[in-house]
Amino acid sequence: MRRARAAFLLRSGIGTYGGPVLRGLVLDVGGVLVGPGSDPETLGSLVCHLRARGVRTALLSNDPGRPSARWLHDLEGPFVDRVVLSGEAGVAKPHPESYAFVARLLELEPGECVFVDDLLVNVRGAAAAGMVGVHHDGSHEALAELAVLFGVDLEQVDDGAVGDAEPWWRCRGGPELEGETEH
Questions:
Q1: What CATH number should be reported for the domain whose range is 22-176?
Q2: Where are the alpha helices (DSSP H) in 38-158?
Q3: Residue 168: C-alpha distances to residues 93, 96, 125 (Å)
Q4: Per the confidence metrics, is the pTM higher than 0.85?
Q5: Which residues does the chain have with pLDDT short of 70?
């Protein structure tokens, strides 16, 4: 019954949480995917799961985009649909245009996207731009919020590996990579 109701809501343009259907997930990097308080395995698995369900995904970081950010660009395609670095885009969080820009790249409206960041100022900026903002405070509450927003049972999300390939955080440096501290 729950699946039938969720399918009806999605066909009707209503998300499982009662708001509009969410079709995009935009994540900060430092403090969310990597660094203290992050859980790259669980979040990485959730991103892979959502992407397989057709949710468009992006990273939005205030990284200056120097050669040291190459590993972030390498995530575009295998892990997320788009990578936006403020140093290259010319606009940084929490400016509203940064959120509108990434939504346009995903071919979505800001109101169809969820944005996750560890800094409240950036979450508030995303919400002001029309996105659903989720504050990642190092606990698993952000993951639980994403599960509710996207109608996902976290216990049914696999480890993010595709075939024999390693998950992104193991083959790209991920949490062990030093120097990615920009928000």
A1: 3.40.50.1000
A2: 40-52, 70-73, 86-89, 96-105, 120-128, 141-150
A3: 25, 29, 28
A4: no
A5: 1-20, 159-183
